[in-house]
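Hey L., structure's done. Input below.
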Amino acid sequence: MATTFLEDAARTQAAEAVAAIETQTSAEVVVAVRSASGHYAHTDARVGAGLAFVVLMVLLFVPQEIHLAVFPPVVLLAFFAGTLASRGLPPLRRALTSRKLQEEAVRTTARAAFTELGVSRTSRRTGILVFVSLLERRVEVVADYGVDSAALGTEWQEALAALSAALVASPSPEPFFQALRRVQAPLARVLPRMEDDVNELPDMPGVVA
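Output:
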């Protein structure tokens, strides 16, 4: 069975990738993984209402006579079944939730995680959070003000694009952590490792269910 992002094996892969990156740069990289950044209850309710409507139409138009007392419990059960189905089927939930809403949820949650995980507490303010939100299949990178994104240039932007592409292309974490190593080159160029550099943040990623 393939490894998932929330397993210990993936945490080990993340720690190895971060340790390799930090051998060449004074930047401090932290990986955080979350199963979802938003609750999207409105999407679940929409699916439930849609299924309830279909069931109601069936009850109204089937040729067999159905007692009216049957309608409320059956329609209500259909609503709850649709709601549970939406929660249990991430591709459906993702497809029925607006992209803008997903982007905003991931961006907001990533910034909250940046503070909660202490990424801003490095002495040179060179912390970088690589935030992975699995339901939305989105990667949000939050860098402290000591990291000059403009100086990192197109090589940095291409590395970030590769991260997002790897997450979308495969549910397996291996391609993602291979892509993560691409951030090493631009970071080493702009923020080379200092002689007195110490590891201020844990390499093992923070996983938020």
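The two ends are 21 Å apart (CA to CA). Residues 41-61 form the longest helix (21 residues).

-- N.
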